[in-house]
């Protein structure tokens, strides 16, 4: 979140060489991730928590673990990589009771506007594990040609989307929404970069005007 005096801003702006300058962003991430780092603090999670996977969904009334502690370099100990001018941001979806995603799990039938690198990623999974295709995919890219040139490589942790076994959300005790850490590996410094991240499922619509299915922010690293 931006500083409280400008809470509606979508700008992430800091100096990578000044730890006091980016301390706000690191502290905000730490607050956001508190329940994920110490899941026992969430009512019921200690008893309900399960290690889930695509072939091991949670039993009825149970919830899946979201273990963020090993998502290097996007960790507390590494200050979420802000000190290296290659920051991590975290994405999650709003919770909608009972909603079931309709996956883009057919590599021959992907939407025309889906980024090419995401299409290639989905195709690379086809032969390994078809269950992994049951994912709400995530893409982040520069909004305009100049932004696309300046944004640099992007990594997604622990995977490029939200696993389908977290859905539907049924208000089970201790439920934590799945997260995706987006690591901007080498963004160009000294210039404003407009970023748009989208979630991809057949029943997720995209609208910049209504802020549906996507999030926009600006990244500026001095």
TrEMBL record:
Domain of life: Eukaryota
Chief place of localization: membrane
InterPro entries per UniProt: Na/K_ATPase_sub_beta, Na/K_ATPase_sub_beta_sf
Cellular compartments annotated: Membrane
Keywords for the protein's UniProt record, in alphabetical order: Membrane, Signal-anchor, Transmembrane, Transmembrane helix
Biological process per Gene Ontology, one example term: intracellular potassium ion homeostasis
Membrane topology recorded in Swiss-Prot or TrEMBL: Single-pass type II membrane protein
Single GO term (MF): ATPase activator activity
Keyword Phosphoprotein applies: no
GO cellular component entries: sodium:potassium-exchanging ATPase complex
Family, similarity comment: Belongs to the X(+)/potassium ATPases subunit beta family.
Protein name: Sodium/potassium-transporting ATPase subunit beta-2
Originating organism: Cardiocondyla obscurior
């Amino acid at each position: 979140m931006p500083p409280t005096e400008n809470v509606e801003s979508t700008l992430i702006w800091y100096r990578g060489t000044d730890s006091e300058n980016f301390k706000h962003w690191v502290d905000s991430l730490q607050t956001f991730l508190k329940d994920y780092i110490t899941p026992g603090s969430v009512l019921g999670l200690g008893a309900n928590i399960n290690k889930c996977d695509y072939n091991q969904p949670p039993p009825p009334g149970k919830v899946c673990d979201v273990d963020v502690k090993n998502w290097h370099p996007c960790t507390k100990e590494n200050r979420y990589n802000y000190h290296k001018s290659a920051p991590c941001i975290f994405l999650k979806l709003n919770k909608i009771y009972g909603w079931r995603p309709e996956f883009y799990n057919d590599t021959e039938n992907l939407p025309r506007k889906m980024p090419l690198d995401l299409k290639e990623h989905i195709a690379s999974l086809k032969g390994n594990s078809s269950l992994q295709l049951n994912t709400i995919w995530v893409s982040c890219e520069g909004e305009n040609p100049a932004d696309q040139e300046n944004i640099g490589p992007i990594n997604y942790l622990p995977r490029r989307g939200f696993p389908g076994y977290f859905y539907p959300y049924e208000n089970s005790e201790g439920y934590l929404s799945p997260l995706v850490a987006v690591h901007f590996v080498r963004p160009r410094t000294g210039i404003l970069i407009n970023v748009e991240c989208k979630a991809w499922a057949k029943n997720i619509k995209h609208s910049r005007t209504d802020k549906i299915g996507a999030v926009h922010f600006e990244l500026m690293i001095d």
